[in-house]
Every structure is written in structure tokens, then in C-alpha cells.
Amino acid sequence: MIGEDRGSSTTDESDNGIGLCGWLLTAISWGLVIVTLPFSLCVCFKVVQEYERAVIFRLGRLLSGGSRGPGIFFIMPCVDNYTKVDLRTTVIDIPPQEVLTKDSVTVSVDAVVYYRVSNATVSVANVENAHHSTRLLAQTTLRNILGTKNLHEILSDRESISGSMQTVLDEATTAWGIKVERVEIKDARLPVQLQRAMAAEAEAAREARAKVIAAEGEQKASQALKEASIIISESSSALQLRYLQTLNSISAEKNSTIIFPLPIDFISHFLKDKGSDNKKKD
Questions:
Q1: 126-137: pLDDT as tens digits
Q2: Pairing assessment for the beta strands 61-62 and 90-100 based on DSSP bridges
């Protein structure tokens, strides 16, 4: 990678310029190793796991070849020291951040960031603490991005916000040897007063929809009744069937009621007489 190439070239220059004192210390270290054999092997040979890398410094300068591992590697006593770097994916839990949105609403938002070390040498040589720096940058980036969004965008478009945050973080942490794999918005907490206002608004909207649905139902029912009345008025048999159905429902619901059914012709006779009387009055 670019960071490793840069570190290797710097190391080559460092190896060529360690000076007479550096060569003398190196020779003394080799002498100690040889004199104390085989006990010195326990100190000189180190092991790193499959998911780890070792970044070695000799007299404060990076060794050529980049990081070592996985497996066994050799260090010289007194002149070498090394740093283990874990390459596994790490999770950062960003604590709730108080953010002022674009439409002047205060929201408390928290998130999680998944990242891993992609270049062990760069993560040690280019930044003091890559994990702590990534955590602080994630908090700042979360506040900056949410500050450009409206409240409804934060509540409904979390996937887009997560993608934007991942892109910004990944670009910034590349120089630290960090690869940001995923960012997720966990929760957005609103003030209590705003929650009540939104709940009242939602309730009003539901009531309005319920009234519209009820009005549409009444309209359809009245239309159906109108069509039914036209059909019944045009057919005497339909009126007779409706009359019998009404009697049946009354007798089923109220058993204590005594019903004396009258012929439908007798009732229609009175209706005709009443209609003729009205015409004479006119």
C-alpha cells in the first residue's frame, strides 16, 4: 500500500543513516545474543496471531519491509521494540450527541461505527492513537452532518446519513491506516415537548382520515339505499319480501313482542287512499 511504501522508503534511508553509534549498539546487541545462547532465543523470538501484525522500530526507526506477522519474528534486545496492531474489526459506540438541526430543533443522536486497521505501519507511525482519533472524528462528523439536515430527514432517511458519514470518515482516516466499513444511526431522541406536539399532530391527522372514511361510507350507504328504494318501488314482490324479512328480524331479537302481521295489500290500499286524498286537497 501507499503508506507501507512510504514507510519502507523512509526506513531504507534510516538504515543507511543510523550512524556509528547505531552500528556500535547493534554489534553489542548481537554479541549479547550470541553470548547468552540459548536463553536469548526466548527474548529474541516473538509470536503474533493471525489477526495481528508487529511494527518493529530499531533505535527509533522503522525497519524495512513493513510490519511482521503472522507467526514468529525476530527482534534484537536493547535496540528493537515493537508494537502489536490488531487487524480485526472494531466497534465504536458513539455516545448521544446533542445536535441542532437545520430547522432549529435539538435532537440527541447516537451511532455505531465499524472499522478496522488496513495498514499496521501507518496506523502506528502516522497517528499517536488511531482508535482514539477515529472515535473523536466520528463524534465530530456525526454532529457536522446532522447539522445540515432537517428533522424529518433525520427520522426518515437514516440510511443516506449513514452512507454520507461513512464516506467522510473513510476519506479522513485513510492517512491513519484505518478503513471504515460501516456506520449505523442507532437512535434519535426528541425533546418531550416536541414529542407531544408530534403525537397531537399525528392524532389530528388520524381523526381527519377517520372522518373522511366515515363520510365516504355514509355516501356509499345512502347511494345503496337510494338504489334499493327504487328497486322496491318498482316491484311489489320485492316490497313483500322486505316486509317479511323485517318481521323475521323483529321476532328474533325481541321474543316478548307479539306481532300481528297484516297483508301487504291491505297496507298498500291505505297508502293509495292517502295519496288520492292529497291530490284532491291540491
A1: 888 899 999 999
A2: unpaired
